[in-house]
Amino acid sequence: MFKKTGVVLALVILGALSLFLVDCGSSSSRPSGLLYVLSQEESNVSSYAVDLGSGNLSLINSNAATCPSGTPCGPPLQISLDPQGKTAFVLNQGSISAYTVNSDGSLTLSSTPAATFATGETALGMTRDAAGDLLFVITNAPAIYVYSTNPGSTSATLTSTISSTSNPPLTRVPTALSAITYTPTGASSAETVLFVTSSQDLRQPPNDNTLGVYAADSSGNWTEQPNSPYSTLVNPTAVLAVNTTPPGQPGAGAIFVYVGNTPSTGGDVSAFELCSQVTPPQCQQADVDNHLLYAVGVPSGVGQHPIAMLVDPTNTFLYIACNGSNQVYGFSMGTASGKLTALTPPYQPTGTEPVALAMHGGINTNSEFLYSSNNLSSTITGWPVVATTGSLGNPITVQFPPGSPYGMAGR
């Protein structure tokens, strides 16, 4: 298994390792791209400038702590940037830390956490809505927390909790989550829907291996939707919702939810379609209102333990990091059907035990790069991406001794 404690991005001069990494440095102005990588061993986050023309990296700073002094935070897990790129949140096992993003891309830690969790409660995952107004966290309590925030703000206010003491209670221990915001056809405002996977139901008899769907009611309370949860394949370990509407265009096209599963051997990804408007054809208006899901197609095979999924800026290509087989898989997504078609080549090797993915670049053919953080080998792997086909070029691996990178984010 990958390390739960152990990540340091103690930084060395990396320029000699390859043309992919240049000498450490900083800039007086915002770099063209940014990569942030968490270290669990050192409880810090390192910032890198990314040259989007070449993929080269330059160290900005390596010592931004992930926990305010005197606060019991636990190891960091994930980092999320707000849509404006002005602030960031880091999810630790025991708290959420907040940062201001400086003009050169470095981070400044707020003196107090944005949120803390109860003693003995461990955070498992975090996601944010597209507008940056909502922050969602799942824990082993089990619980789902919804926080209100604003782009550019370092504060987060708890607005809703779904837990074992709620009515109805949350009876499933979550494993992963993904939120999507869209404007249904004919609607005047956007709405956000949350998808949560689980592989353990605490009830008897249990209903393990499920995908839950949650949305806010007219009072702003988040509740599980009718017909939820949906059955998934064995041990769902990752989930990602994708709106195939081209970026920058209004409305909701087809919305697909992809779930990565981990059977005893190998791995697979299955797809569901959300009734976001009267599509697919069998959806009625009540199905749209209730956020009904339909299973589509057949599962696609991937490597062992798909743990992280990422979509490219055009909402066309899906990338999946497989922790157990040290690979990243790539697929083209059918914008009308949700069907996954393997890219050429279908996968590329990573370092040992990849745990997170990040991507940089606009919608053009010369400036897209995909990165994975590889926990056990203490490396980061990068690939140039052919934007028109989604294909990944030859990998370049960078060592980060003593290492063990974990969560990462880029813009």
Please give a structural write-up.
The protein has 411 residues and is mainly beta. It contains one helix and 30 strands. It has a domain at 114-397: 7 Propeller (Methylamine Dehydrogenase, Chain H), CATH 2.130.10. The protein has one helix at 285-289, and strands at residues 34-39, 44-50, 57-65, 76-81, 87-92, 95-101, 107-109, 115-116, 123-128, 134-139, 143-148, 157-163, 172-182, 191-201, 210-216, 222-224, 230-231, 236-243, 255-261, 267-274, 293-302, 306-311, 317-322, 327-333, 340-349, 354-360, 369-374, 379-384, 396-399, 405-410. Strands 4, 5, 6, 7 and 8 form a five-stranded antiparallel sheet that branches.
List keywords for this structure.
411 residues, mainly beta, Methylamine Dehydrogenase, Chain H, 1 helix, 48% strand, globular, disordered N terminus
The CATH architecture assignment of the domain at 114-397 turns out to be 7 Propeller
Tell me roughly what share of residues is in helical segments.
under 10%
The stretches of 5 or more residues where confidence is low (pLDDT under 50) are 1-28
Helix count equals: 1
Shape: globular
Give the mean pLDDT: 86
Largest sheet: 5 strands, antiparallel
What oligomeric state best describes the polypeptide chains here?
single chain
Name of the CATH first level of the domain at 114-397: Mainly Beta
CATH level 3 topology of the domain at 114-397: Methylamine Dehydrogenase, Chain H
How many β-strands, per DSSP? 30
Helix-strand makeup class: mainly beta
Radius of gyration: 20 Å
